[in-house]
Design a protein that fits this description.
DUF6933, 7 helices, DUF6933 domain-containing protein, about 140 residues
């Protein structure tokens, strides 16, 4: 995860280390940080459903995310891709007016269709395969 600003709005970008599936949350305020795990889980659920994941897949990732820990990462692949996502958002939505008029679901869908050279496919497809594998196990 990384915190960045567009104008006066705080934004959070999060990425899954294995699949590079990512999500941006716009307009995060101080009270949101007090219940950060709830904020992440709810936005993840909304994003995944809007991107066509099944309810079973969403519930599986949410059950795993109950054990989520926020730590420093040394995974250069994930850090580089997270930086690319943030730069893309800042380029497409340079000011407060643009970011507040943006369709966040569409933005996150577009971000998950960015071809990263570290993957064989788009992050959304890799996450789909990852969740299918988890459901089989």
């Amino acid at each position: 995860m990384n915190l960045f600003k567009i104008g006066r709005y705080k934004c959070v970008a999060a990425i899954h280390d294995t699949t590079l599936y990512n999500m941006v949350i716009i307009g995060v305020k101080k009270p949101d940080f007090l219940q950060f795990n709830s904020l992440i889980r709810e936005n993840l659920r909304i994003n995944m459903i809007s991107q066509g994941f099944t309810e079973k897949q969403v519930q599986r990732i949410l059950s795993i995310s109950e054990e989520m820990k926020y730590t420093k990462t040394h995974n250069r692949r994930a850090l580089g891709c997270l930086k690319d996502v943030i730069q893309t958002v800042q380029f497409l939505y340079p000011g407060e007016k643009e970011i507040m008029n943006a369709d966040i679901m569409e933005m996150n869908l577009d971000n998950n269709h960015i071809p990263f050279s570290k993957l064989k496919h788009y992050p959304i497809k890799v996450m789909n395969e990852y969740l299918d594998q988890l459901l089989v196990d």
